[in-house]
Amino acid sequence: MKKVIIIGSGLGGLTCGAILSKNGYDVTVLEQSAQAGGCLQCFWRKGAKFETGMHFIGSAAKGQTIYRLMNYLEIKDEVELMQLDPNGYDVVALQGQQFRFANGREAFLQQMGDAFPHQRDNLAKYFDVVEQVANASSLHSLKYAETDDMVNTEYQIRPINEVIDSIITDPLLRKVLVGNLPLYAAELNKTPFSTHAFIMDFYNQSAFRIVGGSDHIAKALQRTIERHGGSVKTRHKVTRIVCNDTHAEGVEVNGSLFLPAEIIISDAHPVRTLELLDTPLIRPAFRKRVNQMPQSIGGFSVYLHFKENQVPYMNHNYYAYNGDSPWGCEDYDEHSWPKGFLYMHFCAEREAQWAKTGVVLSYMHMKDVERWQGTSIGHRGAEYEAFKEQKAQQLLDSLEHHFPGIGNSIEHYYTSTPLTYLDYTGTAQGSMYGIAKDVNLGAAGRIPHRTKVPNLLLTGQNINSHGMLGVLVGTIVTCSELLTAKKIYEQIEIGVP
């Protein structure tokens, strides 16, 4: 039983812990916070529960990718899901119209084709390309050794807008199809089409909210780890990865306690991981490259606690844009913010009739709040609180425009900024999705899961992609170093009823 220490209990750390503990490794997951889960964690205010990062998942219907992975991770029966509206799981409000995204090829083409009848053939071509890209990755389709490298490469180096513009001729439809880009903070001429395709395919298959909150996933994964002899320890902050001349020997916790390990996996942001390493095994050029990599934008959130039985539960996600395009919402000034927002309700119970809580999320750069960096949560001062209140009112005014009267139905609201995200998750610059994907950077824009410290591996949203599927794909890549990909695929296949 090799001793494995995992730094960080986000989705990547917990799923690595679950897979390795199932395979006989002695796993200890170390989390600096009081609650495990990273972006899966939730918080309570005045009797109301709120999710912080993962608000819904896709491909979780029986037999689909996430269903199979949840079964493999032994959490399928412990996490209750509620399906979003199959006829419109996403609604995009743009240029005074609303466009609904339906699950499944035929329903998607029918509904979007009704809105753009002259684009029916082009929509079919677009859908075919999305499916082609998703199926070209054995990791996303869970088909061992069935990767199409030519397709993978082509759509990793072509930006989203270039590919869509080559297929779709209607300017409005081009914008509608990227209406959900806040899910991955896409940027014009930068974000690869493959990122868009994976996410579109992921949610087109099916879309679900987690009943009772995303922390149920974290708790279920922790139970899997513990069932197989591992442990998850909160309030254990790794302050140093201890190395000798050839490899890592263990970690230092809370500045004093040394824990030995034969294998170390870091679920922390790569910038944070490098801060823990003082070894010549990591070259200065690599440190410089990682520290200079662009990060995805951060977010400003307003968490809404509704008055009882006043706001009907909204069984879809709502993306709204105040301008004529989803592109460029990250380029704002004090007067143009917010250019758009994502509005969602939380699913407190199955078949909910009324919403208890929800969230409104818009982009925000770290530079907007960096003058308060270094202060502690709850003690940032009156100026910071006034800044948040001003931004909250701007965002709520924008929400009111789309949902007249919603303000009168809000009992309480709470806010978070990129600084909040930085303090709770450790992600660089308070970014929502870690390192930004950029076709212009090529290999220099990607982080490997292996490091020059031979027994130190990386996992999490920066290694492959963010979101549940992206992180789980990265987990398979990381754990394959110890178990082989073939073994993991076989175990996934055997575990499916």
Features:
497 residues; alpha/beta; seven-stranded mixed beta sheet; five-stranded parallel beta sheet; 16 helices; 20 strands; globular
Q: What's a concise summary of this model?
A:
The protein is an alpha/beta fold and 497 residues long.
Walkthrough of the structure:
The chain has 497 residues and is an alpha/beta fold. The protein contains 16 helices and 20 strands. The strands form five sheets. A seven-stranded mixed beta sheet has the order 8-7-16-17-18-15-19. Strands 10-2-1-14-20 form a five-stranded parallel beta sheet. The protein has a three-stranded antiparallel beta sheet with strand order 5-9-6. Strand 3 and strand 4 form a beta hairpin. Helix 1 packs parallel to helix 10, helix 1 runs parallel beside helix 15 and helix 15 crosses helix 16. The radius of gyration is 22 Å and the shape is globular. It starts with a strand and ends with a helix. 48% of the residues are buried.
Number of strands: 20
Strand composition percent: 15-25%
Helix percent band:
25-40%
User: Largest sheet at a glance?
Assistant: 7 strands, mixed
Provide the fold topology.
Elements: E1 3-7, H1 11-22, E2 26-30, E3 42-45, E4 48-51, E5 57-58, H2 65-72, E6 81-83, E7 90-94, E8 97-101, H3 105-115, H4 120-136, H5 138-141, H6 149-156, H7 160-167, H8 171-176, H9 193-205, E9 207-210, H10 215-227, E10 231-233, E11 238-243, E12 248-253, E13 257-260, E14 263-266, H11 270-275, H12 284-292, E15 298-306, E16 317-321, E17 340-345, E18 357-364, H13 382-402, E19 410-416, H14 418-425, E20 456-458, H15 467-483, H16 485-495
Parallel strand pairs: 1-2, 1-14, 2-10, 7-16, 14-20
Antiparallel strand pairs: 3-4, 5-9, 6-9, 7-8, 11-12, 12-13, 15-18, 15-19, 16-17, 17-18
Helix pairs in contact: 1-10, 1-15, 2-16, 3-4, 4-9, 7-9, 15-16
